[in-house]
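User: I'm writing a short report section on ligand binding and want a predicted complex to refer to. Could you take this sequence and zinc ion and write out the structure as tokens? A short remark afterwards would be nice.
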Amino acid sequence: MEKHYSRNHFHSKTAFLVEHLKKLFELCIEFAFPTQCVACKIYKQGFICNECRASLENITPESFISRKPSKDWEIEDTLKSMTYLEKVYYFYYYNHVIHSLITEIKYEGRKQLIKYVIDLILQSKEFQNINFADIQLITFVPLHKDKAASRGFNHSQLLAQELSRRLNIPCIDILEKHRSTKNQADLDRQKRLTNLENAFSINPNLTKDLDVNSILIIDDICSTGATLNECAKTIKKFYPNTKIYGLCLARGKPN
Ligand SMILES: [Zn+2]
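Assistant: Sure. The structure tokens for the complex follow:
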């Protein structure tokens, strides 16, 4: 007996074939034109090759001030007066791979690496153990308008927006940087702590009645924690009852 296929059947079969052909085509392209690894610059597959990916070392929860192991990233009661932040989460030790990733985004404008960085955070061992249920808003470390104009974007904002999308937590501009400052990475520890003093202010469009208990600030790398702390201080002045958390991709090994 002759088989009769409906129009829908034909369409779904075609869509299935097209989807598979597309995947096959992409695999062929990847094989024929390997991409250059962001870190070692060797042509292989993916933004970061397997060898470079394997060099990333996970960080286990610690107090971001003392850098002593800490359950759930809590900081010691005795150190709480030193910061405006409740906790800072970070997932990998800073190394040449992390350096290359961030440099390519910031200075080469490779915004397609933002998703890769967020994937790295989401795939890290510790991320799944963090309870984000209490976080009501995500924000980011702002750039001074001159720097934002010369770069064309703020990579911390793009990271925050991507994380916001994945976690389904809204992301808003809470802070502005009204004073241009020296690059933190070029300064010693002492100068880093004072360089950013009073450099940030609250977005003038925000009102005092923002009813939010907790905010997560995103930055790429945490070194002394001075940048996040200054951001948290600025938010706390305006919204004193809000708990502030920080989240970064990486941090260097303790001295
Ligand atoms: Zn590599």
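A remark for your report: The domain at 57-251 is CATH 3.40.50 (Rossmann fold). The chain has a mean pLDDT of 91.
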